User: What shape does this take?
Amino acid sequence: MASGDRDAARSPAARLVQVLGIALSVGGLAFVVRAIAVRWDGIRGDVAGLSAGWLLGGLAAAAAGMTLIAVRWRASVRLAGGELDPADALALYFRGEVAKYVPGGVWAVVGRAELARRRGLPWRVAYASVTLSLLALYAGAAATAAALAPAVLGYSAWGWALWVGGTVLLAGALLGGGLAEVTSRPALAGRMVLPGPGALARLVVGYVPAWLLIGAATWCVARSLAGEAPFAKVLFATAVSWLAGFLAVPAPGGIGVREAVFVAVLGPLPGDVTAAVAVLARLVFMVTDAAGALVASVRWWRPAPSGAGDDERPGQGAEHP
Assistant: This one.
């Protein structure tokens, strides 16, 4: 890391962001823990009677959803001007996922991008593709929530059209604005072309099946505790809460924020186990991330190409994006 980067990392602003992230996480977790404690007498029996079958189903759906996200990253790599082997995409994705639990949302990009650069992708392609994939992933969450909102919230046909139209416009503005910011950096100017609306739309839509699997995983967790749960509402609460966790940039992995939003949006489940569902679902996805990272670390797929990923690296005549 260059001395300027180290100084920035130690700056008061950087420390403030880190403290804010920790505070958000602690506050969100406190909200969920309190919700569990208040209802503990009522949910203790449900937790004790947890259905292992539904929980295993949740783990399987979580693994499938995260794997699909890893595979879809390849489309972002191609849009950024590179190519990535499917096996490498899986290994790099899961190894990079652990970085998202470090305070400061930037590590979700840096961790995977640095691994990809060391694996052979030019650093511009690596960073641009990870940024693009994250923006498209959460635009997909917004689109999923928008499509479900009328059914969950009871909107009329006109209300549905206004909600979906407004969300699509907002997601497009956020995605386009984020990409414009990336491509405006001096290190990328003239080297990365902003994908057209059609390519971006296909990228976002490609992530919707992953959100269906993530929602299904959370629904299975809910079924393991509550015995029954409305699938559409669980999926809606899942998409909204993950999006909120992503937008709460300083909070590591959205911990606390995601759970608090999930509880607030979903509302009570039979036995008042909503808070327990939020915590258990987080554990399911953490286990999935850890297992994927472990497999990727134990079996690295092939040696990186010699000298790969070194084109005009930061400090060699170009500014890091």
